[in-house]
Amino acid sequence: MLLTSPDHFEVAYVINPHMEGHIGDVDAERARAQWDALRAAYERVGMEVSVVAGQPGLPDMVFCANQTLPYLTPGGQRGAILSRMHAPQRKPEVEHYARFFESEGYEVTGLDPDLPGDFEGMGDALWHPGRYLLWGGYGYRTDRGVYDRLGDKMGFPVLPLHLEDPDFYHLDTCLCPLDEHTALVYPGAFDDEGLATIRAHFARVLEAPEHEARDLFACNAHSPDGRHVFIQRGCTETNAMLREAGFEVVELDTDEYLKSGGSVFCMKLMYW
């Protein structure tokens, strides 16, 4: 899995509602300690962590889920689709991840030049655990038409989900696939059709309460192995549901990153 060092992390502009009022408000020392704790937690559960260095002038690069969509085909081909970032401040981030995946031997491709619209990688495009199936959030950072083209070119089915609330501007803020059969969601982020689609493909759907989803990013959790769930500290009701469902909760403090609109899932990228 991949992390990006927080050397240059700050809130320097506002491109989502969570950033409002937080420009210049990040405690860099505390943010570094939180990032170190996240890395250590992944290593404790047996994950091998690679790190891409954060770059000057790119404060949101630490949220490394957004710049690419890594994939592994059923035939074993590894590749990475490069994002087309919505905010101009974030567009220069992508080239750093292109170089990383090229160095790892991945086939790296961008969106077709004739395809309009934006695409923000695994911020909006989530693999269903155990299946060659992609969940595709759209409405704020990614355009619906991108998924049609990706599905046609890559041969994987895509289930599009329209996002309804600007606080949940990426799919990874309101849907967390935990294992092949279980998902954690905030229902208020979706329209009726999207929520029905989620329920049709996961046998067990856990619903985070609004406060924990909106203010503590409960659904921006991550299960690296289908057993442990890494989640922002303080999500009391959500954590109780997770434990009752048989998961081992690992609480982490990411409150410096919440100021920029991200938590655990945003801060890492899984790849093969």
Describe this structure in words.
By secondary structure, this protein is of the alpha/beta class. The protein has one domain: L-arginine/glycine Amidinotransferase, Chain A. 26% of the residues lie in helices and 21% in strands. The protein has 8 helices and 14 strands. The strands form 5 sheets. The chain has a 3-stranded mixed sheet with strand order 2-1-14, covered by helices on one side. It has a 3-stranded mixed sheet with strand order 3-4-5, with helices on one face. Strand 3 and strand 4 (78-82) form a beta hairpin. The chain is globular, with a radius of gyration of 17 Å. The protein starts with a strand and ends with a strand. The mean pLDDT is 97.
Secondary-structure map:
Elements: E1 2-4, H1 28-44, E2 50-52, E3 68-72, E4 78-82, H2 94-103, E5 107-109, H3 121-124, E6 125-127, E7 134-138, H4 144-154, E8 158-162, E9 175-179, E10 182-185, H5 192-201, E11 204-207, H6 210-216, E12 228-232, H7 236-244, E13 248-252, H8 255-258, E14 268-269
Parallel strand pairs: 1-2, 4-5, 7-8, 10-11, 12-13
Antiparallel strand pairs: 1-14, 3-4, 6-7, 9-10
Short description:
The protein has helices spanning 28-44, 94-103, 121-124, 144-154, 192-201, 210-216, 236-244, 255-258, and strands at 2-4, 50-52, 68-72, 78-82, 107-109, 125-127, 134-138, 158-162, 175-179, 182-185, 204-207, 228-232, 248-252, 268-269.
